[in-house]
C-alpha cells in the first residue's frame, strides 16, 4: 500500500502525494454559501463570536507545528473555513487528548470535535456530521526487526506474546487492538507523537493507528519502516466532526452543506495533500 491510496469517500479517490514541500496555509475555497436557517447552537456561536474546535493531534487531519504551536491539517482548515465563511466568527482551537474528546463535547468545552471516527457507541453520546474522509486501522513496523523474519500477512501474525504494539490511548486503534489481539503486549500512550517515538526508538514492535497517519510515518522513513494493512480492512471508519447531542438537525445540515461544498470544489483533496506534504517535510 502506498500513500496515494488514502480514501476520501466511499468511492475510491486517489490523492497523488508529491514530495515534501514547504508548509503553507491553503485557504479553503469559500464558494457560494447559501443562507440557511440555523438552530440555537450556531446562533450562540455567532453571539460569542468564537467557534471552539477540540483539537487532538492526528496527522494529517489535525496537526500542530512544533515551533509555532499553530494548528494545521484537513479538519483544522475546515473548522477555520466554516467559522470564517459560514458563521462569520473566529475559530479557537482547544488542545485536548483523545480520552477527553467525547467528554469535552458533552460538557460544551468545544462546539466541534475534530477528526472523530464514527461508531455506534459514540453516537449514543454525541452527534456526528457527514463523513469528511474514510480510513481504517493499519500497523507500521521496522523492516529490520529481528523478531519479524517475514512481513506480516494477517493480524494473527502480530498477536504473539513476544511482540508489542503501541497505540494512542482511547483511539479507535486502541479499541481494535484491545478487542482483537489477545497475547500481544499493548503499550497505551497519550498521542501519535509518543507512539511514533516508541516505534522509532524500538521500544515497541508495531504502531497501530489511522491509515493516513501511518502512511505519513512510512513516507518519512521509507528506508526502515513499512506498513501492514489487514484484509479485510480493520475497523473501517468515517472521520467526522462531533457535536453535542443538543444541536439541532438544522444546524447539522448547515455544517454538512459546507463539507459537501468543500468536497465538490476540491478543497478536501487539496487540504489533505498539503497536510501530508507538510507533515512528511517536518519529519525529515
TrEMBL record:
InterPro entries xref list: Solute-binding_3/MltF_N
Keyword annotations from UniProtKB, A to Z: Signal
A Pfam family the protein falls into: SBP_bac_3
Gene3D superfamilies named in the record: Periplasmic binding protein-like II (3.40.190.10)
Domain Solute-binding protein family 3/N-terminal as annotated: residue spans: 50-279
Annotated protein name in UniProt: Extracellular solute-binding protein
Organism expressing this protein natively: Caballeronia choica
Domain of life: Bacteria
Span of the signal peptide: 1-34
Amino acid at each position: 500500500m502506498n500513500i496515494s491510496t488514502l480514501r476520501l469517500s466511499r468511492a475510491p479517490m486517489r490523492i497523488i502525494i508529491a514530495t515534501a514541500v514547504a508548509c503553507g496555509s491553503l485557504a479553503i475555497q469559500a464558494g457560494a454559501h447559501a443562507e440557511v436557517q440555523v438552530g440555537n447552537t450556531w446562533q450562540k456561536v455567532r453571539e460569542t463570536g468564537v467557534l471552539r474546535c477540540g483539537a487532538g493531534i492526528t496527522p494529517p487531519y489535525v496537526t500542530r507545528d512544533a515551533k509555532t504551536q499553530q494548528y494545521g491539517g484537513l479538519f483544522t482548515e475546515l473548522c477555520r473555513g466554516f467559522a470564517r465563511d459560514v458563521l462569520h466568527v473566529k475559530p479557537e482551537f482547544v488542545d485536548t487528548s483523545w480520552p477527553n474528546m467525547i467528554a469535552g463535547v458533552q460538557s460544551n468545552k468545544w462546539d466541534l470535535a475534530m477528526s472523530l471516527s464514527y461508531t455506534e457507541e459514540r453516537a449514543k453520546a454525541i452527534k456526528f456530521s457527514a463523513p469528511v474522509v474514510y480510513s481504517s486501522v493499519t500497523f507500521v513496523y521496522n523492516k529490520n526487526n529481528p523478531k519479524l523474519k517475514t512481513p506480516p500477512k494477517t493480524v494473527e501474525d502480530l498477536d504473539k506474546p513476544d511482540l508489542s504494539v503501541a497505540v494512542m490511548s482511547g483511539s479507535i486503534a486502541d479499541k481494535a487492538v484491545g478487542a482483537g489481539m489477545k497475547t500481544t503486549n499493548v503499550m497505551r500512550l497519550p498521542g501519535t507523537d509518543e507512539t511514533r517515538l516508541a516505534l522509532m526508538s524500538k521500544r515497541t514492535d508495531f504502531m497501530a493507528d489511522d491509515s493516513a497517519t501511518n502512511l505519513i510515518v512510512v513516507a518519512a522513513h521509507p528506508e526502515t519502516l513499512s506498513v501492514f494493512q489487514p484484509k479485510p480492512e480493520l475497523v473501517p471508519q468515517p472521520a467526522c466532526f462531533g457535536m453535542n447531542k443538543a444541536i439541532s438537525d438544522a444546524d447539522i445540515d448547515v455544517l454538512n452543506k459546507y463539507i459537501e461544498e468543500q468536497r465538490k470544489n476540491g478543497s478536501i483533496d487539496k487540504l489533505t495533500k498539503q497536510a501530508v506534504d507538510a507533515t512528511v517535510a517536518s519529519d525529515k
